[in-house]
Specification:
Layout lengths: L2 H10 L2 H17 L6 H18 L2 H17 L8 H20 L2 H30 L1 H7 L1
């Protein structure tokens, strides 16, 4: 999600508007320590879509929905996924939410950018592990 969306969500939202986001983060957190499952991917999607909704950015919300739809449909949950990433993502979500409640835009942007980098890094590592399984010669270049 773009950093500008969290800035805008903070500017537009009220404490009452944070309640649905808090509930979505709690659902994600309850499932974050388990094996990567479709439900957890949907909870993650819900967190991101709720922030886009708070930002009032329909275009971003639709784009994120499309991206997450592909992730949920394509993500293989065969055990290669790093289980620590779910817990780390939940901590990142919570830090972001806390910064939103404090209306600390600088922290929000920093947290969102770090969250995006970590998610990308995790996905790249996951793709490399999958490639190594298909082609053992690739495994030699990963380590």
């Amino acid at each position: 999600m773009k950093a500008f969306a969290v800035e805008r969500a903070t500017a537009r939202s009220t404490q009452a508007a944070h309640d649905p986001l808090r509930r979505k983060m709690d659902c994600y957190g309850e499932d974050a320590h388990r094996r990567c499952r479709r439900e957890r991917l949907v909870y993650d999607q819900d967190v991101h879509l709720q922030i886009a909704q708070l930002a009032g950015n329909g275009t971003l919300k639709n784009s994120l929905r499309d991206v997450f739809e592909h992730i949920v449909l394509k993500k293989r949950t065969d055990g290669l996924y790093d289980p620590a990433r779910g817990a780390a993502a939940h901590r990142e979500h919570r830090k972001l939410f806390e910064a939103m409640e404090r209306r600390d835009v600088d922290a929000e942007v920093r947290i969102m950018r770090a969250h995006t980098r970590e998610a990308k890094s995790n996905e790249v590592a996951d793709l490399r592990r999958r490639q190594a399984i298909r082609d053992p010669r690739v495994a030699e270049t990963i380590d």
